[in-house]
Amino acid sequence: MVEPTASGPWSGVISDPKQGPLPVLLIALTVVTGLVDAVSILSLGRVFVANMTGNVVFIGFALAGAPGFSLSASLFALGGFLVGAFAGGVVIARTSSDRARLFLVAVALELSLLGSAVAVAQAAPVPYDGPVRDGLAALIAIGMGIQNAAARRLAVPDLTTTVLTMTLTGMAADIRAHNRATLTRRLLAVVAMLAGAVLGAVLVDRVRPSAALEVAAGLLAVVTLAGVMAMRGQGAWRST
Length: 240
Known about the structure:
Helix content is 70%, strand content 0%. By secondary structure, the protein is an all-alpha fold. The model is unreliable at 1-6 (pLDDT under 50).
């Protein structure tokens, strides 16, 4: 097997000493985003729980009376996301000197919230009624707010975990730069979101909405375990 080099296409993902394991872990969180947004859009009244740009637009549609959009779920998701981002800010203030600790605390909190959402979704009848729908939207959005705040602070290029607008813009605008490592990282972010959305939609449509949340929680558990392992190692990447 040929080891990746600093100039290879994988250097920004698996062999960047400045970022350590963070790129791979953030790509996994991007898959989680695709899964939970599939649940929220297909089962919670067309609401985004991770992408607040889309959610604000959906609130506008609901205010205009467009059919199929839940104003309450969108508002609960927006409020939950802001609460989560605030909580993420508290985590950042207490752990910002160590990126590994920041990542671990953030994903552990997100896992606890998504686990709670799984429990609610499993116990409630489908389709979800108003209070259950709004509660699920809020719970998941709080977790995504924490995730987004942590990813913003970790500042791994092109890996925000929740939105792809700037990633896609960079892919197109910088394509002539011929930076294979950067292009690989951006492509992986897009593929990760797409894969999560496809898997989430299949599970929601053919199994049950809670199944997609269960898979997302399982993936988060794996990421949390990886965060624990990262805490045991050393490296320049851990310092902000």
